[in-house]
Amino acid sequence: MIAAIADHSDVPAGKLRQASELLDQTPLLPDSLWQLCRWTASYYQHGLGDTLSSALPVLLRQGEPAMARQQMLWQLMPGAYPAHPAVSRAPKQKQALQTLAMHPHGLSHALISQWGLTRDVLEALERKGLVRRISQSPHHVHEPRPLHREPALQANPEQQAALDRITAAEGFNCWLLEGVTGSGKTEVYLQAIAHCLERQRQALVLIPEIGLTPQTMERFRRRFNVPVVILHSGLNDRERLDAWIAARDGEAAIVVGTRSAIFTPLARPGLIIVDEEHDLSYKQQEGLRYNARDLAVYRASLEQTGVILGSATPSFESLYNVQRNRYQLLRLTQRAGNARPPRFQALDIRSRPLEGGMSRPLIKLMGDHLQQGNQVLVFINRRGFAPTLMCHDCGWMAECRRCDARMTLHQSPPQLNCHHCGSQRPVERCCPKCQSEELRPIGAGTERTEEQLIASFPDFPVLRIDRDTMGRKRAMQDMLERIHSGEPCLLVGTQMLAKGHHFPDVTLVAILDADGGLFSADFRGPERMAQQVIQVAGRAGRADKPGQVIIQTHMAEHPLLLDLVEHDYSRFASRELAARQAAGLPPYSFMALLRAEANAVTQTDEFLDNACDIAEQLLATHRISGVELLGPVPSPMERRAGRYRAQLLVLGRQRSSLHQLLHLLLVALEQQPQARRVRWSIDVDPMDM
Ligand code: ADP
Ligand code: ZN
Ligand code: ZN
């Protein structure tokens, strides 16, 4: 890839290579995207070459020229629609005619697969004389008339206030749209997009992995008479490149996609939307460990456009940026449709017998809701919060004797580790406070939940929603149909449940284990827990069937839990943000994690101890202040696939000094002989500790 042209180089002549062919006649990327990639590489301490590889469609990396295959359009012949008799018994052809009718200027070859059409169908219609091919220049841009296919909803006052702010703004602006679930954030996005399209600009919409449901896509397609491309996992390499080109050349007016779509170039950028901005799937967890939400904000500043971050439970980073006046807060506090918000209640389970992770009062309550003909949703947390040890009888928890942190429980060999100071001790046999022997890792025992539900409620179906069922489209559709039929049943699931869907007949939501999040060794545990609780609770209820949310806990009087149960997410967030500030944790400081993985624990130790020494020397010789090194410690999941994993935490009061150290450290580590025996990486702004 040619990044720049120079007439002199410090690299020895023998190491320079000849360019053998020029693949593209014009630059591949607009300048803003090129700058975004360079910034990404430097910010995440990642090689530029690999960053560009991650950012570009596979076919481009393999040398395919970045040109649309053919600028050929399919167009309807006059009079072919509605419903020509020649296609009355060919539903695919009928659908094709219908789709083309919505695109009077013609639909490009690049976009037909986006509408579920194939070339065969169009060729069959061509033979019947119902459609024709026309050709046009690649950069032709249509002015859609009228813009709307379906009218916008009448915005309510809160939505209108948000829209007024968004549409009045010029240049770069970042808005945090904090709206309770069902408050009509999507409607705000759609009307903001309309404003962007009216100014002949393109909109880029990022959605979390699992939110990529047909419903979401349909809402964008149904509303506007413009080409929409959706970058979903079902596209093959060629379709992906076509969509990329359609976006870059300005043919696609709206681009919707998951994390990696942030690298899609736009000819006329106008607006970026990041839906569910708190979602962890925006952070890539391997290779180039970027956060697409953060890149969206940086990209909008490069392209001088607006960016809307939307969520019912904003990330603490975004709330902090509102505090610092970097982002502008827009709030939607009421549900837009007719659903009413659920009631929350904490259920103390200290010393209560648990069956499959559920207490008797909870099981009884489930029975009541089912008997009344309603549905029950059971949320199991599998988010691998770093486990800690807790007394089931009194709620005592294993804490570090040297610092103000919870110990993390490691299974083999059994021991407790402090992730802050690195101290270790054996696992207690009984509770130091009440002498009970009921010491348990938090979160244990929920594996049996489904079995227990089947045993307790033999007359009601138990439907499981997790990554497996969500992955199979047909299975998921069937399950959703059953749920929406309203028959009384129990839904069991993990965080998949917390996203996207609405279950109007669910009247009871049970959260089995909030403690795992509240008392995680990971400082983000409470934030994640609250987000999940609110998101899951938001799936339930409607006007005539308001929901009830039960949170099982050993700490019913914990102030954070009370904030959540008796107040709302904002109240919870302000308390927890104050705690983060007092402890000097992100977002009030900046973090990076040096991770290492090897076949033997001695290798990771040796590498990280050495890295720690080098980092200390670098801090001293370069007079970098305000950077702390914590650890090394074993990773929360110390052994994975037979390999040992450990980490060194680097905490900086200023981003600039943290980055200065990371840059020097990276260069130094690459020279180290141990660096070749372990797999290691630097994770900037890590999300999983
Ligand atoms: P969110 O994205 O905040 O969860 P949605 O945009 O999905 O909320 O809106 C929730 C429901 O409320 C949807 O059924 C939507 O059609 C409806 N809705 C949103 N805005 C309005 C409005 N202004 N008037 C009437 N119904 C609305
Ligand atoms: Zn105890
Ligand atoms: Zn400690």
UniProtKB/TrEMBL annotation:
What this protein is reported to do is described as: Initiates the restart of stalled replication forks, which reloads the replicative helicase on sites other than the origin of replication. Recognizes and binds to abandoned replication forks and remodels them to uncover a helicase loading site. Promotes assembly of the primosome at these replication forks.
Kindly give the HAMAP family that the UniProt entry links to this protein.
PriA
Hydrolase listed as a keyword: yes
The source organism is Halopseudomonas pertucinogena
InterPro entries in the record: DEAD/DEAH_box_helicase_dom, Helicase_ATP-bd, Helicase_C-like, P-loop_NTPase, PriA, PriA_3primeBD, PriA_3primeBD_sf, PriA_C
Binding positions for Zn(2+) 1 per the UniProt entry: 391, 394, 431, 434
Instruction: List each copy of the Helicase ATP-binding domain by range.
Output: 166-332
Designated name of the protein: Replication restart protein PriA
Instruction: Output the CDD domains linked to this UniProt entry.
Output: DEXHc_priA, SF2_C_priA
What EC number(s) does this enzyme carry?
A: 5.6.2.4
Name of the gene this protein is made from: priA
Subunit structure, briefly?
Component of the replication restart primosome.
Q: Which cofactor does it need?
A: Zn(2+)
Cofactor stoichiometry and binding remark: Binds 2 zinc ions per subunit.
Task: Supply the alphabetized keyword list.
Answer: ATP-binding, DNA replication, DNA-binding, Helicase, Hydrolase, Isomerase, Metal-binding, Nucleotide-binding, Primosome, Zinc
Q: Which residues form the Helicase C-terminal domain?
A: 426-583
